[in-house]
Design brief:
heterodimer; A: 298 residues; alpha+beta; Alpha-Beta Plaits; 2 domains; four-stranded antiparallel sheet; 4 strands; 7% strand; B: alpha/beta; Rossmann fold; six-stranded mixed sheet; binds adenosine-5'-triphosphate; binds magnesium ion
Chain lengths: 298, 238
Amino acid sequence: MRLRVYVAEAIRSSRANVAISVAATVTVLIAVLLLGAFIPTFLAVQSTIDDQKAKLDISVYIKDEATVQQVQGLQNNIVGLESEGLVREFSYVSKDDALAILREQLRDESVLDELASNPLPASFEVLPVDPADNAQIVGQLEGHPAVHEELGVEFEAETTNRFLDVVTIVRWVMLGLTLLLLVAAVLLIGNTIRLSIFARRREVEVMKLVGATNWFIRWPYVIEGVLCGLAGAVVAVVLLLALKLGVVDPLSDATDSGLSDDGTASISFFSLALILILAGAVVGAVGSGITLRRFLRV
Amino acid sequence: MVVFDEVRKIYGPDSVGIDRLSLNIEHGEFVFLVGPSGSGKSTFIRLLIKEIDPTEGTITVGGRNLNTMRRSKVPYLRRSIGCVFQDYKLLPGRSVYDNVAYALQVTGESPRGIKRKVPEILSLVGLSEKGGRMPTELSGGEQQRVSVARAFVNHPRLLIADEPTGNLDPETSIGIMQLLYRINRTGTTVIMATHDREMVDKMQMRVIALEDGRLVRDQRQARYARADEGPVGSSPAR
Ligand SMILES: Nc1ncnc2c1ncn2[C@@H]1O[C@H](COP(=O)(O)OP(=O)(O)OP(=O)(O)O)[C@@H](O)[C@H]1O
Ligand SMILES: [Mg+2]
């Protein structure tokens, strides 16, 4: 029953201060729009990084003369590294597998038919948790009796290092953008809130003189903030949806890079919309709640 | 009903609001608070509703010590005191009806109770026909009557008015005065700060006179000026 009074008050008040309500709504709209464009971008970059990482594996070549026990020992070493948290996963590639892989990669596989025997070594393909640990992993496996003397343990140090540099830069840029976005949103919202303080100072003073408790005064404003936040977020989501259907989807269909199709990293539009709308409501509520704190002490 | 015990309110180094004021106002009294501009009348009233706290001394309202009252209890104090101000202090953008209803809503009054009490009080102040008007669509006297209606709709035991007729012409003032008198006759204590010499003289009620924050006179059935001041106090008896 109280709630009805509060909601009625909230609607009444946003009608009375249309300009401020619109300003607050637009503020949330902009912030949510930026956030909505940012989250998928961030996830796409992250998933690209993960994709690239998956290609940075280590090949541990096994010499043909190695005994079954020796190979077993090598595998145990790798399992050990896995339980230490250095290795994410590994697989065994037999000589036949290696040949099959090569056959697939070659356009003209007839060359292989000329071979008398299979020259390719068997190997363990080891995927590190963090490519930065590659040198350490190599150090642990090198020199094992099962390891091929000439080929040894191999990974592309230079590629890895360059890639790691790029990842670091991308991370910093992303962090910077996030901070910038947050600061911009806070400044915008703070400004709107200052406007509303001015419009309402007198009104709140009178309410207190009549004996309204702080929460009785606050609730309608909080609800009003939530309504503005929701409205802004919903409009932003609609705009994002239009953007997605009109621009992003046709583009990614055309290039067909498969970049966003792996499912795990990209976020479904539905959950994105849900997060954004929730964020809008929270920002609206917190915004008006905090504003009132300052001048409720009469 | 109201007890001041050696109350001082110092605003700043050379700004004294109230100075060592002691007085006692009984339940059901009608009291005029008079004094020149800057004598501390508004300060007295702001102390009563705990809008400000005294620098020294003790204030008791309706048996409750305001000095030790917690902040969170202040709204309940204010609900038990009706307030009328010179500038009406109506909520802008709300109709007459809604302004009066707000005072009931803050107490958690039911919608049914509001529907019953608001028209009742509006007819008491003679504004039954104008419940739907906005404050800006009313004359000063009408706005002040809304303000009185809002102050009295909860039937508080104490009603205070700070120069309620300060902005009104003499005839309209009499209307407001009569309203306050009728409210007093229902048993409500009324404290009214005023400059209106004629009104005070006519009413012959208790007069508390302040000067520079100090009590200079407290007299029953009194006039605006001290009786022995004679013509010096102006307003010669006709
Ligand atoms: N907020 C304040 N800060 C500093 N000094 C104040 C403040 N409010 C009032 N005063 C001073 O306290 C004294 C009493 O002021 P008060 O408003 O109580 O007078 P008053 O009797 O109501 O005057 P008036 O008849 O003009 O309304 C004055 O000297 C005034 O300057
Ligand atoms: Mg005054």
